[in-house]
């Protein structure tokens, strides 16, 4: 859309210029969400947008004369950019002139000379007063103080400027009045009216009564810009009816407050011949026309002068290349963006005029984009086909601007457009099944294993988080045994594990990316609990209370090798931690008994004496763990006459089978196998890392 507003130049900052929300047809509360922002084409910031009210406000006080000089119109061009969707709106604000400047003459006092033989009707040109205001606020008329001999005449120049002249109405007599003092007043058309005055002093002289006359008094010349320095612009045609010095004319530029001396830097004037030539390069883009005032003055006494007005209009040539302005670029763009999605807003401008300033844009045909004209000198770059980040993660887009001049001028600008990823790939584990080992009774927080997953997406779509799923295989939730670092996938214990309670865990791990919607996959880690020697042997037979002794009677004449009793113990641990050995604790006296190290059988080691009393034995049962744990039992053996005992019947224990005998061997083989597999797995993981 293109909006048009106007604002007087004297308004204070904060003045409301226009209701943007109403004129754009959008709701005020959506402006902030759509990131409405203001872009000034001139580079200076004069306005601001009140997002809360949806109105365009003045940011600084405007000075029309400083902004536009003497241009009849003064407009400021703005651009409004809104996102979601991306839109560009053009705003044109006319700065209205107010009557804030009074007319002012170049000099406060004007000195004129006129011969006393001048005929009624003789005209004396005056300096034009300057008023920076425009339109009705500019100079409206001039007034001259009352005089018997002089009156005021106002002529209108070709460009509309009013030129005051003093006209002689009654013949002069220098002997009666040699000097006339008048007041010239310039009035503007403002309300209230402002004015400026200059004192006019007219000296009445004798002789030279014919001024130089320029033919024509007002002329126009067409000249191409960038002509070589020294090119002849024109030769003034001035005649003076006088003879001798009174007819010898000298030329000079006449300057005023209206860009004082500006054209004198670009043009030179031959004071003798009246030839005007260029003395610096002319640029149509800087100024398309120049108003030159020339004073033709004779050498009479008093000297008389005439005035020539020349308008030099420049013809534009194609000397400026187009300029490309990237107003807004939406980078990155989603790879699933629909055809027609706006990628960038591009503006072009060419300081030349006519066909030289007509610009067209081009981009490479093989790109999946196209240019769409929004309005004059503004284009939208939109998608014309599907995008695929896996094939191309970005594009270097070169925009070429070519004008219609002869010869053509072109320029180009390249920018990079990044293609943003969408979450179309699920994360994958390096292996769906893994094996880990952990020692029982390890402290909570012990690292067990680290799972690893990858995601071919990028950004948040490739940001992975790990979690443990509950499989319901244990009595308690798996999360009460293990936890996982959601960032690096390291599995830690939550509490100490008990091999005797749980020997293996299946830990389902889920990895999920941060995309929307999130994608995930799972893997299972088998965690084997390694046994630790945390259980002391438990003596099953004989079963006696703590602090008591077991009494066993044997025949007094028992032969060496006689089986007295058998100690039976078990260990809740496994493997070498459950290998039990039996031994007698050392005593001060030698005992006639011995204990089988592996079976726990107590036998008579040497023949007993008839008078021998009872013997007290302390049997210690020790496992093979590190550190080793033990238990002991006290047995009191009393030799008795006629004591015969069939120990195999009295000991109510099952006889060990051959399968039980080989259990220890199987445990050793299993432990060694598990250790070897663990070493191989850790080696593979270390090599992969």
Automatic annotation (TrEMBL):
Topology of this chain in the membrane: Single-pass type I membrane protein
Matching CDD domains: Cadherin_repeat (cd11304)
Cross-referenced Pfam families: Cadherin, Cadherin_2
Keyword Repeat among record annotations: yes
Record keywords: Calcium, Cell adhesion, Cell membrane, Glycoprotein, Membrane, Repeat, Signal, Transmembrane, Transmembrane helix
Residue ranges crossing the lipid bilayer per the database entry: 663-687
GO molecular function terms noted in the UniProt entry: calcium ion binding
Subcellular location as annotated: Cell membrane
One CC-aspect GO term: plasma membrane
Domain of life: Eukaryota
Chief location of this protein within or outside the cell: membrane
Domain Cadherin: 47-105, 106-214, 215-324, 325-429, 430-539, 546-658
Chain coiled-coil ranges: none
Biological process annotations from GO: homophilic cell adhesion via plasma membrane adhesion molecules
Stated name of the protein: Protocadherin gamma-C3
Lineage of the organism: Eukaryota, Metazoa, Chordata, Craniata, Vertebrata
Designated gene of the protein: Pcdhgc5_2
């Amino acid at each position: 859309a293109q909006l048009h507003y106007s604002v007087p130049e004297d308004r204070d900052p904060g003045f409301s210029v226009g209701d943007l929300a109403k004129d754009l047809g959008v709701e005020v509360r959506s402006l902030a969400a759509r990131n409405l922002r203001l872009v000034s084409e001139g580079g200076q910031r004069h306005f601001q947008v009140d997002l809360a009210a949806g109105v365009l406000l003045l940011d600084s006080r405007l000075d029309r004369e400083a902004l536009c000089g003497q241009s009849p119109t003064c407009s400021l061009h703005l651009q409004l950019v809104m996102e979601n969707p991306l839109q560009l709106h053009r705003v044109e604000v006319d700065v209205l002139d107010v009557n804030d400047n009074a007319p002012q003459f170049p000099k406060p006092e004007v000195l004129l000379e006129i011969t006393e033989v001048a005929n009624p009707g003789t005209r004396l040109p005056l300096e034009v007063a300057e008023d920076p205001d425009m339109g009705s606020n500019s100079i409206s008329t001039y007034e001259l103080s009352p005089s018997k001999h002089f009156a005021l005449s106002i002529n209108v120049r070709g460009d509309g400027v009013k030129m005051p002249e003093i006209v002689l109405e009654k013949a002069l007599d220098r002997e009666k009045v040699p000097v006339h003092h008048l007041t010239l007043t310039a009035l503007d058309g403002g309300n209230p009216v402002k004015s400026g005055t200059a004192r006019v002093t007219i000296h009445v002289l004798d002789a030279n009564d014919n001024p130089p006359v320029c033919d024509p008094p007002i002329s126009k010349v067409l000249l191409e810009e960038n002509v070589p320095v020294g090119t002849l612009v024109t030769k003034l045609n001035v005649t003076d009816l006088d003879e001798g010095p009174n007819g010898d004319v000298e030329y000079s530029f006449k300057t005023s407050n209206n860009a004082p001396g500006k054209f004198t830097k670009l043009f030179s004037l031959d004071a003798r011949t009246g030839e005007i030539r260029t003395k610096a390069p002319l640029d149509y883009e800087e100024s398309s026309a120049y108003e030159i005032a020339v004073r033709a003055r004779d050498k009479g006494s008093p000297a008389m002068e005439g005035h020539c007005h020349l308008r030099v209009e420049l013809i534009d040539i194609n000397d400026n290349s187009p300029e490309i302005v990237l107003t807004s670029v939406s980078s990155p763009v989603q790879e699933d963006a629909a055809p027609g999605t706006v990628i960038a807003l591009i503006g072009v401008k060419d300081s030349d005029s006519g066909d030289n300033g007509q610009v067209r844009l081009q981009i490479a045909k093989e790109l999946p984009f196209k240019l769409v004209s929004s309005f004059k000198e503004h284009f939208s770059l939109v998608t014309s086909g599907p995008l695929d980040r896996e094939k191309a993660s970005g594009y270097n887009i070169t925009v070429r601007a070519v004008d219609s001049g002869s010869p053509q001028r072109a320029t180009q600008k390249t920018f990079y457009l990044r293609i943003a990823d969408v979450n179309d790939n699920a994360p994958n584990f390096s292996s769906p099944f893994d094996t880990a080992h952990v020692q029982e009774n390890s402290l909570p927080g012990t690292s067990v294993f680290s799972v690893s997953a990858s995601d071919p997406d990028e950004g948040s779509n490739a940001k992975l988080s790990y979690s443990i799923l509950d499989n319901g295989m244990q009595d308690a939730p798996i999360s009460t045994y293990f936890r996982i670092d959601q960032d690096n996938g390291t599995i830690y214990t939550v509490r100490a594990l008990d091999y005797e309670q749980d020997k293996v865990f299946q830990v389902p791990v889920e990895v999920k990316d941060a995309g929307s919607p999130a994608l995930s996959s799972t893997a299972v880690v088998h965690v084997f609990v390694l046994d630790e020697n945390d259980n002391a042997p438990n003596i099953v037979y004989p079963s006696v209370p703590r602090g008591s002794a077991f009494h066993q009677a044997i025949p007094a004449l028992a032969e060496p090798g006689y089986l007295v009793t058998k100690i039976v113990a078990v260990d809740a641990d496994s493997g070498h931690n459950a290998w039990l050995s039996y031994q007698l604790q050392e005593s001060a006296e030698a005992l006639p008994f011995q204990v089988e190290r592996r079976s726990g059988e107590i036998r008579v080691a040497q023949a007993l004496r008839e008078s021998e009393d009872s013997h007290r034995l302390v049997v210690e049962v020790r496992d093979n763990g590190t550190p080793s744990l033990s238990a002991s039992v006290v047995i009191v053996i009393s030799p008795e006459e006629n004591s015969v005992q069939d120990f195999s019947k009295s000991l109510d224990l099952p006889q060990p089978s051959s399968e039980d005998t080989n259990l220890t061997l199987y445990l050793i083989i299993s432990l060694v196998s598990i250790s070897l597999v663990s070493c191989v797995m850790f080696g593979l993981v270390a090599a992969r890392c």
